[in-house]
Amino acid sequence: MLNWLCIFLVIFISHQINATDYEIIGDDSCFFTRCSKEDNKGNVDIMTILDVSNLKHEYSDDLETVRTNGKIMVKGNMPKNVPIRVELELLRWQHGQWVETSISIRRNDFCKSVFDPTEIWYDYMNNLAKNDRDCPPKKGKAYLLKNVLNRVIVKNVPMAAFPGQYKAIMHLISGNFSTCISSRMHLNRK
Predict the structure, then answer these.
(1) Is 166 within the bounds of a domain?
(2) Bridge partner residues of 141 (DSSP)
(3) By the 8 A CB rule, do 115 and 122 touch?
(4) Which of 18, 19, 27, 99 is a Cys-bridge partner for 184, taking CB atoms 3.0 to 4.6 Å apart?
C-alpha cells in the first residue's frame, strides 16, 4: 500500500512541477457556430435563441488576433426556474478526423459557474458589463461585447496537452430544452 502511495505522490508532484501555460486561439471562421448534425444532441438551434449578426470582427496587425465588438441579442426564452446544465467535450483534429480527448467539463448550474474566476470561460464572460450579467438570459436582452479577443492564456495546466487544432462542443440543457454551440481553436504551448 505504501508503494502505491509513493508512486501516486511522485506522479502528482511531477505533474505539478511540469505544469505548462497554453495559449488558446479561437478560429475566426468558426469560433462560435451552430453544431454539426453529428455533434448536436440538442433539440433547439442556437441561432433561433441568439442573434449574433450585429457582431463585428476586426483583425489585428498579426492577422491572427481578432477583436470582436457588438451585441448578442437573445431572441428566445430559456425555461424558467430550471437550472441550465452545461456539458462540454473537447475533440482534437488528428489524422484527418476529430478524436475524443479526456477533457470534458460538466456543470449542473451554468449560471452559478459562468462568472466564477476559476472557470476556463471566465476571461470571456468577465468582459461583459456588470449590468449585462443576467443568467439565465431573458428574451430581448442584449449583451454588449467590447474588444473581446479570440485568444486567452491558460496558466499552469498540470496535464499533458498537445499543440494542435481542437473543437469544443458545448450543450446547454434546461429541462426538455437543449441546444448546442461549437467552437474551433488552436492550442499552443507558451
Answers:
(1) yes
(2) none
(3) yes
(4) 27
